[in-house]
Amino acid sequence: MDKPLAKYFVSDIYRLSAQTGDPSWAAQLRNALVAIKAGDSITVDVYVAHQGSGGRSSVTLKAQSESDPTKTGTATCSIEP
Q1: What ranges do the domains of the chain cover?
Q2: Spatial separation of the C-alpha atoms in residues 52 and 54, rounded to whole Å
Q3: Are strands 11-20 and 57-65 parallel, antiparallel or unpaired?
Q4: Is the pTM for the entire model greater than 0.90?
C-alpha cells in the first residue's frame, strides 16, 4: 500500500450479530454496525430477555469485517434468569 494513502485506512466497519443458546432467551443489539480504529477495542451492549421457563444459557456476539468478511471475532458469556 502506498504510504501516503495508509493514513486513510486506519479503521474498519464490522457487522455484529448476537445469538442465544436457548430459544427461551432472545438477544438484541442496538446497532448492527460499528466502526473501530485499527488496534482498538470497544464495548458492545447486548440486550437479552428471558421468555419462558428455560434456565441458564449463553449469548454469543459475532463481529465480521465489512471490508474483509474472512476477518471475524466472537465472544460468548453465560446468562441466567
Answers
A1: 11-79
A2: 6
A3: antiparallel
A4: no
